[in-house]
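Objective 1b: paired records.
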Amino acid sequence: MQLFLPSLVTIILAGVFIFFVIPRVSPTIVFILAIIYLYIMIQAHYSMFGDEYRLNTWRDQLKILATPIIISIMVLGLLFATSQFVFKIDLKSMIESYSKVLIPKYSNIPASKLEEIQKQL
């Protein structure tokens, strides 16, 4: 019962503050109070759960792999870009050829309508 009463008092005081005080305050002050409250809550959260953040070390193993992954992505991008210049690969024709394969066949459309649709494309 001792935990219930303080939380009930807190909720009542918060309701009084929200309905009677905040509407009479300018938006600038509300914004500043929100920023201050956010800062205080971030500090409280980190002080409560700081040990869990420090013990969560699975991401530290990924930090080791970050540099080789970024370098390999850059090298592959450079290889792809230079291969377009060297081999004169036309991406537009490749995309058009693949899109023709991926266009579904409409069997329920009459042939005359289908020809009109194909002409419009």
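Objective 1b, second protein:
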Amino acid sequence: MRGGENMEDKTNTKLDPQAALHEERKNIDARIQAVNALKTQDQFKTAGREIALAYTHLQEAKMWLGQALGMIGSELPAQFADKAE
């Protein structure tokens, strides 16, 4: 981003909180998939541990945003609810 660009155009500040968190979770999910694809490429084999850590922390970031959604009152869709017996 260049110095003179409007930062608001690149953020979710204009969205309602739930929509903003959902959007960020989608963005993180895209990054999770991209990092996962790196694991199979030969040039990244020597950085396997670091890539695995990045993958894990992206998953955690998505999880924490999900927790934030719950805290502001967003309901978990029924198809994603745990069905432990």
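The two ends are 50 Å apart (CA to CA). DSSP finds two helices and no strands in the chain.
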